[in-house]
């Protein structure tokens, strides 16, 4: 006959698991996040060690007067010659008054070869050294490595906020044609692009795209990014963007953090999901709703050609409108 002592290991395990789950749920359900001042994002099990040595200096060198930096990430696959990196940088050079923003851009390399390539192309490069991880190859959408890279990126952005820098994060498959900063509301600490925009920048039914997001550093945004990263354990196997979409279904979600979220209008911040139709207004175009680097490259090259054709036209013809994108072609979803 089994004795009580025989069940002690099982009982201890169950109590420990219950306590851990209770801690997570208690944190995620807090009405006011301010009570966790100083809490670092903690791993769940064996997390890889991240080395942030030298990050503060790189950010300071690139920062605007208000401590804002533009950030993007790069891996070896996107760093190859004539690949995404070259198209991204070209867009700044051919855009309207965007070239001057390159001095505020920090390219975050996810592997050593990407870092080496970055340093041949741009003055502000940072190697995000995550021990035990290899992000060099192309990461197909929603694969395990892709998801890990997206969550690591999110945690890196939290660190930038903790270093008291505002940031505008941009995916590298976003082409820049005009400065976006005039379209950012001074009242909002968190502004994010949309895959599709319904016309109301405050409507939580807009579907967010975390590939283009402007965040001001403050206690509320820092705590929010901690919350967001922890929430990955409640939604295993989900993209960080999908997790955000699930969390915001609670109409009081951002109120809990004293945050006002604004969704950016696709008329200015478009993409292949919902293209910007007026080239006289467009600031950025994103190769979203597109799977595979080859497809992205094909359509982005055409996109840049279309922009060059537009800018070559006389001012009066531009004002009349009528210019449209030929893409998406390969990126039709």
UniProtKB/TrEMBL annotation:
- One Pfam match: Nucleotid_trans
| Domain Nucleotide-diphospho-sugar transferase as annotated: residue spans | 101-300
Q: Which InterPro entries match?
A: At1g28695/At4g15970-like (IPR044821), Nucl-diP-sugar_transferase (IPR005069)
Q: Name the domain of life.
A: Eukaryota
Q: What is this protein called?
A: Uncharacterized protein At4g15970-like isoform X2
In the UniProt record, what gene is named as encoding this protein? Answer: LOC103716153
